[in-house]
């Protein structure tokens, strides 16, 4: 088998497959467009099919050749008929094509084969003019559409170009027999290209259609991400623009389900002049309810309202596609086409891709909007409660300061009178009276200590503090001097080196270290206290560490010790007010830091706090 024979067989196979595919498609759906597509390729394949019939049966009937020729001559008119489904074709052009087809038939039937040169040229002119018009329509349709339809129209135009070229060369070969040898290979090659491109245009495989759809989906999603503010209005505007480009029409509407009114609420593009003519209770409501896309024509079984809607909006076919995400139907996309569509199934698939992705984006936008609304409401509540808590804390601090300040005077009076009683009437008291008197004096002293501690705690926030450079090494030295007697009595060792300089209130920092060192001396157990103080730099803060070898703290009480007036031991075991660590934590927080403790019972405790560097 040579190259010429291979090309002949390939082109015949492609044309036969096309004819069978389009015929099956028509028998399944039975609509006018599929009927005319099948007729086009049956006409182109008639000669091949008749040749197969002759080879199988051995019948050489002369009229069969005329039948195949007549069928082939009908191809330009049928192709023009396909064009009329998606672009308006002037009536004069349609009538001229019909007349030219009839004249060509007459020449074949009357003159017979072979045709004279002038008849061949007339037939060639008929093919060139009518198929040329169809080719230009395919090309314009491709530029006016996107997605799968654009690709299919491009290949349909290419197939028509190759077919016309092959027929022109064949006609020239008939008129000029001397060119037969050189023209045969060219004719077969162009016929094979025509069959291949027609196949891709009119019967593309599923994987190729899906690849085209994925490309369009990617472009659509990128378009949504690049522009707009993410609102439902902007998302629908992007959908309008995508459908307008894909379908070549500005008559696009979206009806979204309104939960409040429990009905479809219409939103439309500028291409629909008469919104009241839209009927949302007929086929549109049915598509929303059944969640299945439909192609509606005036010949369909419609109610009067739907017919009036299509007539008022000058729509021949109506494409209705649900906007769904999972089982939830958000609304319906409605596209009004004035001239129809040559590949309506691909149009529906592309629109379904648009609506599915739009539904996802709309659902996400609704969730984000609801989340934003709830966040704003929560922030407002938090601000209100924070303000209320701040007022309560301010009032509590003022109360603590005023109460503790005002209690000092009557307490001083009580203490003075107790001292006076002890001086004047001590001899009159028995042992039980002296015991009672000691309780009263001890209670007054403890009350004075608590009031002083409460005043110190309230001053941490109520007083104005001056933040200046503070050398922590000098502060700890000063604290050790103040506590020297207690340090000597306990036999304690305090190690501190390389402490940094920080910006802080010196008096508060001094009190902080004093409280921590005092606690380490107080809760020392049976061993001589060893206290280590150091600091390390962590990014933008200093982390201080005060570590001792005292009695330690149980894990369940590690948070409780920082609460005001919370004590873990009885007053007789370890005296104190229960405010010292609360003051420490308040001081650290006032400086913008954090404080926590790690401890092991019997091994000691390590207090950590941070101060901004």
3D architecture notes:
This protein has 3 domains: 3-204; 223-366, 2-Layer Sandwich (Beta-Lactamase), CATH 3.30.450.40; 464-612, 2-Layer Sandwich (Heat Shock Protein 90). The protein is rod-shaped and about 160 Å long. With 613 residues, the chain is α+β, with helices and mostly antiparallel strands. The chain has helices at residues 3-29, 32-57, 62-73, 75-83, 91-111, 117-143, 147-175, 180-202, 206-226, 232-247, 283-290, 304-312, 344-425, 431-462, 472-482, 484-490, 506-522, 580-590; strands at 252-258, 263-268, 294-297, 317-325, 328-336, 468-471, 493-496, 501-504, 530-538, 541-547, 595-600, 604-612. The chain is 63% helix and 13% strand. The two termini are 89 Å apart. It has a 5-stranded antiparallel sheet with strand order 2-1-5-4-3, with helices on both faces.
